[in-house]
Design brief:
269 residues, six-stranded antiparallel beta sheet
């Protein structure tokens, strides 16, 4: 991507954000779904919210195009914009459409006039603080579900039972907070788990990695990898996607042990 630099965010934003990033784009690039939502400024195009995506997409821009962004953790955007994420699935939405024309115009002007990438990141982080200030505390439900599925596979019926809601409620909540149902979220986070393990064990065989990350076999890994990323596992690992977060975790805390259970919680829809 020319150069692409992910960075840790300010400590007061770590609960919501995985990272910030700056980039100078050239050539054609493929973005692979990871459950996160990026709010990005693109030179000449303004500020857009990207995702949630269910499959990869490619883009090409003139060499040297500048861009910056902040990456929200899975499940932690819908309340900030008061918009169910399934309404934004596989779309790019302008900031003005989501947060109002005045805020969108003010933020875009500050970004356009900023001297460098670090200053632009600071503008987007300030925007995240402003959105958080306008919003009630985040529902911890989404983080718990995401953490559970990031740690291992769950049968959807078991996941609903362990969080004390019905499968229908689980589906509706997942659509609202993640943009798609729990089965799709499980597949996307399983592929992220595969990439993370593959990076930590570069000489492991694909069949071994597939088994350890919850796929039935290597063929299952290959099918899901092609569905989500449009690539084979080998092609995926050779690209940018495994390093997209700069080694920073998608969720705060450590992934759940395979024998742990999500916290049981009574909830109404």
């Amino acid at each position: 991507m020319g150069w692409y630099v992910p960075r840790a965010v300010a400590p007061d934003l770590a609960e919501r954000l995985v990272c910030s990033w700056t980039a100078e784009i050239e050539g054609t690039h493929r973005l692979v779904p990871d459950g996160c939502i990026d709010l990005m400024w693109l030179e000449g195009a303004g500020v857009v919210l990207c995702g949630p995506d269910t499959s990869s997409w490619t883009f090409s821009l003139p060499p040297g195009t500048k861009s910056v962004g902040i990456r929200f953790r899975p499940g932690l955007v819908a309340d900030l914009f008061r918009t169910p994420l399934n309404e934004l699935r596989n779309r790019r939405a302008g900031l003005a459409d989501l947060a109002g024309a005045q805020l969108g115009r003010t933020v875009t002007e500050r970004l356009d006039e900023a001297a460098d990438g670090a200053t632009r990141v600071a503008v987007l982080e300030d925007l995240a603080r402003e959105l958080r200030r306008r919003t009630d505390d985040a529902d911890p439900w989404a983080g718990r579900i995401g953490m559970a599925l990031a740690g291992r596979n769950w049968r959807i019926s078991d996941l609903a039972a362990e969080t004390a809601i019905t499968e229908r409620q689980l589906e509706r909540r997942s659509q609202r907070y993640f943009g798609y149902g729990p089965a799709t979220l499980r597949s996307i986070l399983r592929l992220q788990r595969f990439m993370r393990l593959a990076r930590s064990r570069p000489y492991a065989q694909l069949a071994e990695l597939a088994a350890e990350t919850g796929y039935a076999d290597q063929a299952h890994l290959s099918r899901e990898c092609r569905t989500i990323s449009g690539q084979t596992p080998t092609q995926l690992l050779a690209g940018q996607a495994p390093d997209w977060h700069g080694g920073l975790p998608l969720f705060l805390g450590t992934p759940r042990d395979p024998h742990d259970r999500p916290t049981r919680r009574r909830a109404s829809d």
